[in-house]
Amino acid sequence: MDALTLYTRNPAETIELGRSVGECVQTSDVLLLTGELGAGKTCLSGGVAAGLGLGPEVVVTSPTYNLMLAYAGGRLELYHFDLYRLESAEQLYDLDFFAYAGVMSQGVALVEWGDKFAEVVAAADLELRLTVVGDDTRRIELRALRQRGEELAREVFARYMRARADYADE
Ligand code: ADP
Ligand code: MG
């Protein structure tokens, strides 16, 4: 399947896309968020948290210094990784990455900078690739990395388009 491509025109739309993701994901899904610094990966993660029902009090901040932050209390647990500072794939074991990404996981793993490591890409279902195309415009490609990712990409795309149509009507 080719990538499904969409554009967001401001951070609120990126959060809305994340909300759609959070409403569609299932236990043990693994999503890569790729794109340069400032592309909107952490912004999108905040939307995912909201879509999981973690509540507006959960402000997802980039776990750059922690490498992983876990959030409980939503429909599923959220494991938010930021591998920007990770130097070697061996350190993924220190983080328990493969447990959080595996079939026994209790939640969904969102991984910023996961494309640095082939081991992470191999564990992922779907890549959300963000590209800055203007001050406030981002191109976001949904790229399935395995079969589950194709199903998830279609569901997320459809749900987001419906959400946008709803607020265009208001
Ligand atoms: P990353 O985690 O990819 O480094 P962040 O989500 O931390 O990026 O930051 C994205 C920045 O870009 C924020 O300052 C946000 O306000 C800004 N921004 C502008 N337009 C958008 C958009 N359409 N989607 C997401 N962020 C946007
Ligand atoms: Mg970030």
Brief account:
The chain is α/β, with parallel strands linked by helices and 170 residues long.
Would you mind describing this structure in some detail?
- With 170 residues, the protein is α/β, with parallel strands linked by helices.
- It has a single domain, classed as 3-Layer(aba) Sandwich (Rossmann fold).
- Helices cover 37% and strands 24% of the residues.
- The protein has a seven-stranded mixed sheet.
- A hairpin with a 5-residue loop joins strand 3 and strand 4.
- Helix 1 packs across helix 2 and helix 1 crosses helix 6.
- The longest helix has 23 residues.
- It is globular.
- The structure holds adenosine-5'-diphosphate and magnesium ion (MG).
Question: What brief labels describe this structure?
Answer:
binds adenosine-5'-diphosphate; binds magnesium ion; 6 helices; Rossmann fold; seven-stranded mixed β-sheet; 170 residues; alpha/beta; globular; 7 strands; 24% strand
Total strand segments? 7
Count of the domains? 1
Strand and helix order: EHEHEEHHEHEEH
Low-confidence stretches are none
Secondary structure layout:
Elements: E1 4-8, H1 11-24, E2 30-34, H2 41-51, E3 68-71, E4 77-82, H3 91-94, H4 97-101, E5 107-112, H5 118-123, E6 126-132, E7 138-144, H6 147-169
Parallel strand pairs: 2-5, 2-6, 4-5
Antiparallel strand pairs: 1-7, 3-4, 6-7
Helix pairs in contact: 1-2, 1-6
Bound molecules: adenosine-5'-diphosphate and magnesium ion (MG).
